[in-house]
């Protein structure tokens, strides 16, 4: 498969997404699964809520650019592996969207973005909030698996000589 080059904006948004998503997943699972002092949990919650809320408009732009790129390209996936890779990329976008939306809807307090912006709590009904918490947790588990799969595929391609990461470097 011949790949199209990515714009600088797409590369920037890819790496911004990677850093924020990996940080939020690792730190979120860490404080959820291990015994951590309350101040650490509160700090991680503050940083994760702030970062992921601030990330939302960047992710919307990333979705738009990705959709525009895929629609404007005449590229067709010709092999099963290419079709699977394309499907997994879109699945990652879908699950990230679900994680971000449920992350907002599960908030049981004002959304504090770095003490600079305060967004009112979107829902008041505790049953709905609990539902979105459950969806959010499971979506995060699925996202972690998809990120691991994505990173494994990149490593596999790099080790086998197909330099896929070069498409995401800024020097091109």
From TrEMBL:
GO biological process: respiratory electron transport chain
InterPro entries hit by this protein: Cyt_b561_bac/Ni-Hgenase, Cytochrome_b561_oxidase, Di-haem_cyt_TM
SUPFAM superfamilies: Transmembrane di-heme cytochromes
Localization (cell): Cell membrane
Pfam families: Ni_hydr_CYTB (PF01292)
Top-level taxon in the UniProt lineage: Bacteria
Keyword Repressor recorded: no
Molecular function GO terms recorded: electron transfer activity; heme binding; metal ion binding
Occurrences of domain Cytochrome b561 bacterial/Ni-hydrogenase (ranges): 6-170
Membrane topology category: Multi-pass membrane protein
A single Gene Ontology CC term: plasma membrane
Name of the protein: Cytochrome b561 bacterial/Ni-hydrogenase domain-containing protein
């Amino acid at each position: 498969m011949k790949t199209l080059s990515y714009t600088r904006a797409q590369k920037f948004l890819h790496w911004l997404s990677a850093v924020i998503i990996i940080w939020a997943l690792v730190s979120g699972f860490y404080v959820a699964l291990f015994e951590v002092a309350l101040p650490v949990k509160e700090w991680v919650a503050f940083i994760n809520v702030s970062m992921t809320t601030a990330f939302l408009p960047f992710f919307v732009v990333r979705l738009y650019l990705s959709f525009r790129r895929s629609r404007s390209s005449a590229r067709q996936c010709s092999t099963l592996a290419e079709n699977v890779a394309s499907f997994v990329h879109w699945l990652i976008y879908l699950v990230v969207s679900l994680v971000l939306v449920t992350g907002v809807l599960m908030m049981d307090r004002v959304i504090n973005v770095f003490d600079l912006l305060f967004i009112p709590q979107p829902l008041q009904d505790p049953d709905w909030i609990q539902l979105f918490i459950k969806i959010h947790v499971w979506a995060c588990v699925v996202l972690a698996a998809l990120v691991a799969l994505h990173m494994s595929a990149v490593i596999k391609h790099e080790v086998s000589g197909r330099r896929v990461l070069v498409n995401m470097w800024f020097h091109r």
